[in-house]
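Why do we bother with a discrete structure alphabet at all? Because it lets us treat a fold like text: something you can write down, compare, and reason about line by line. To make this less abstract, here is a complete entry for Potassium transporter KefC. Read it the way you would read a sentence in a foreign language you are learning: slowly, and without expecting to understand everything at once.
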Amino acid sequence: MDILWIGLAYLLGLAVSLVSLPPLVGYLGVGFILSAFNLSAGNFLHELAHAGVLLLLFTVGLKLRFRNLLRPEVWAAGSFHFALVMSLFTVGLAAFGLLWKPAAFLAAGLAFSSTVLAAKVLEEKRELGAFHGRVAMGVLILQDLFAVGLMVIAGAGSVSPWAVALIVIVFSQPLLQRVFTLSGRNELLLLLGVVLTLAGGKLFESLGLSGELGAIVIGALLANHPRSPELAHLIWSVKEVFLVAFFVEVGLAGLPNVQALLGSLILMVAIPIKAIIFFILFLMNSLRARNAFLAAIALASYSEFALITAQVGVNNGLLPASYLSALALTVALSFALAAPLNRFGHGLYDRFEAFLSRFETARRHPDQQPMSLGSASVLICGMGRTGSAAYEWLRDQGKTVAGLDSDPAQLEACRAKGYRALYGDAEDVQLWADLRLDEIELILLTMPDLEAKRRSLGYLHKRGYSGVVAATSYFPEEDEILSQAGVNLLFNPFIEAGARLARLGTHALAGLGPLPEAEA
């Protein structure tokens, strides 16, 4: 059976990817196919799915800053949204015949958005660290805290008095980071990450708390370690394979009858309403329309937690068993809708930008983008390792440089080094429309995401920028796409690093000493 669902997952994932849909839509389909034939994948699938979710949320924790939860666009918008949407769902479910208590309980589950889906789609686009990604993940972590309280109230599990002892974990941070450093790199570092993830999840579960919350907390304790990005990269492929099982398992929950199917379709209509409320609340907390829109669509889904609340309700006699299959289909359909919606989110915003931007408040936004770069003659978009190295080299050559990045944490690190680093999303058409580029002779696009570079080139071409635009490219197929988009110069870090190493080696072999910087 394991070979069957793994093989089907590959085939359907490949099929949907060929029509530009995310593979996870195919994985959901596998679950429904197996369910239609009354097939079960067994405990192995469940354990794999659970491990995948924990690893995903551990990587979210590696990029988390707890102070982000204290920002009003997170705690105020997240809390008000939960209260409002829960109230609306309670009234709606009661109108369909449910008693008030089970209606309120189920409504709470439906008010949540999927942490797993949002983290996955944001990570695929390299936007977990972007402003809108941080806002969305902050809201989801807040919802996870609400979920813990809800399950305690429902009697689904009791929190152990020993849970207060978890505060000790905070004080163990120096020890964890020391072990992190001693683990070196590659397989030992990966093994440490897996052990900490599973152990943290199990510890929280044993104390009556969410294992998912435990994975996030353990990851957050390692977030400020210099090797945390390396660990996140090592875990990436492992958790991607495990998460296939999660999406198959969601689909396996079963196919509903006609009545439940109608209920599922009605619930799907509510997803745009949830997203619109998020959009309005983010705007009220002074976000720009673009980030409010992107954060809102990242949250435009139902959570797998709705299935958990429904199961508890069925076990306690509050809900009929038919609700489970209806909710399973609802969650699966919301995933299938949200995945492509997020993939094309930037393009959707560009299409409706004139309309959506009308709703921005007049107050200064925390994600305000610059209009001027001062006296800078070179602009670097993407201030990671490549962008920072380029910044230092150009500055040493006497150039006046400015850097842009959408990751607030990255900007803090750059400013601590004395860089002129400003907040800016290179995929935002408004940035390129407002930014004064008269003095900019050279633009370097060092963002890792291909689509971000392609869109930036399109905006620059549309604006009529006449300077030189250079970009990093990691694969041959990217070269063709970026060349067609109008890039002047392509740089492959892997190829260029190998060529430079060879020049240095042959120069040293000839006994000529270090290669002059200009020739290296």
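What the structure line is telling us, in plain words: The longest helix spans residues 258-284. The mean pLDDT is 84.
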